[in-house]
Structure formats: C-alpha cells, structure tokens
Design brief:
Elements: H1 21-25, H2 33-45, H3 49-54, H4 67-80, E1 81-92, E2 95-104, E3 108-121, E4 124-136
Antiparallel strand pairs: 1-2, 2-3, 3-4
Length: about 140
C-alpha cells in the first residue's frame, strides 16, 4: 500500500500520516505504548516489516535473531492480510487493549482483540507480548 504524507494515517487517529505514524516510521522516538500500537498497525498496513522488527522486544516469543528469516515471515504476514480498522479500547501504563479488523488471507473477515504488553529497552517502548482473541466473521454474499 502506497500512501502520501497528506493521506489519513492508516491507524485511524484522524491525523494525516505525516503528522502521525510517519514520524515514528522515520525514527522519531515513540512516547507511549498507545502510539506504538498505532505505529505498528500502520507499519503492517503499509508493509514495513523492518519497523515491526525494530519495535519488537527481544523477549517476545516471535523475536528471531536471524533477521533475514524473520523479515520474510513478517513481510509474508503483511502481504497476505488487509488491515482495515484499528480501535484502541483501553490503555494504562504498559498495557494497551485494542480491537482490529483485518481481511485475513485476503478473504476472511477477522476481528482481533489483543491485550498487549510493552516494555522499555534503552529508553524505547517495545512490544513485549500479548493475549490474542481472534474471531472470524461470516463472509457476506455480494
């Protein structure tokens, strides 16, 4: 997905991409876990696997020291899903609960709810882990 800096940000903050997640994608320090959730969502939507990897804590179960192999997995996930909607449900300290709608495998409407946990490493917020609940929706006839 290509995006202009003046387009609405994929994280649905209501801001232009250049005033929202683009700043973080271009290496600006991410101030809160909520901002990190939004920036990672946008990175998935925009197919930016390097950002996803850079913002994943080394203690995360998906973290892989073989960056080339890991990058292929993250890129494949980005390519096989369409990221429709993000809603922040709640945020407190190092925890953010969000609900997201994706079109999994380009065909299956899916809602993901995650209680995500973040930790700081070297002064930067990183995605540590989360508890996922995934719900597939019925495909509606056209």
């Amino acid at each position: 997905m290509k995006i202009s800096p003046n387009d609405s940000c994929p994280c649905e903050s209501g801001k232009k991409y250049k005033k929202c997640c683009r700043r973080y994608h271009n290496s600006m320090k991410i101030p809160t876990p909520t901002d990190l959730v939004r920036a990672r969502w946008s990175a998935y939507a925009l197919k930016l696997p390097d950002f996803i990897m850079q913002t994943t804590h080394p203690d995360n179960p998906d973290y892989d020291a073989n960056f080339a192999k890991w990058r292929v997995r993250v890129e494949a996930y980005c390519l096989r899903n369409i990221f429709h909607k993000l809603e922040i449900v709640s945020a407190e300290d190092d925890k953010v609960t969000y609900r997201a709608e994706i079109l999994a495998f380009m065909s299956q409407p899916t809602t993901i709810t995650e209680d995500a946990v973040f930790a700081q490493k070297d002064g930067n917020w990183l995605y540590l882990d989360g508890e996922l609940d995934t719900e597939e929706s019925e495909i509606k006839d056209a």
